[in-house]
Design a protein that fits this description.
single chain, about 220 residues, mainly alpha, 7 helices
Length: about 220
Amino acid sequence: MSTIEPVRKDIQHPPLIKKYSSSLRLWHWANAIVISGSLITVLINATILDDSPTAAFMKAKFAEAGAQLTKHQTTTVAHALSDSVWDIHKYFGFALVTLLVFRLILEFFQLADQKFIRKLKSAYRHYYIVKKQRELARHELAVKIIYSIFYLLLITMAITGLFLAFEDFFAPYKAIRPSVKSVHGFCMYLILGFIALHLGGVFLAERKESKGIVSDMINGGRE
């Protein structure tokens, strides 16, 4: 008679925990896609579908084909094309808001050591209280502060974007629309700066002390 030995747990070598949960990785890459899509729509409307150049281009092409259109007609069509791209931009915005809410909820369900707030507090403690390995602690704190600013930018973008998307609902506050739009646009440039800083930091980390950081964000890595 064969016997089946019970599975024994190796107490001395507990299973390794992934640095990044699957939920966090999903949020990271989905957020990257949504932000990229949102920025691309802005770029398209600011260049290819800018009303005046597009209207002039259409008028010239119709003239070559023997059709004479007025400036008002071509401008109206160009503006309609631009609006269709802005509609896509709104959908990306709604997706961004959804992902932001998902990230805030996720923070409550992450493992204790993977919570962003806890990591921020730990970085602060190591730099200002423990005061050991100050250079490494300073770098870690700086990274956490930059990410904190990024999250605040996302929240600001979400709030201002929703205001602009539902401006008819906020009609009593129509007077502040220009200011809200300016803040929304300014945050976009700051997020572009964060993206450039983030990519540069990842590139340097891959070449120095944190090889495999991109791979870790795909497969989860190991603590």
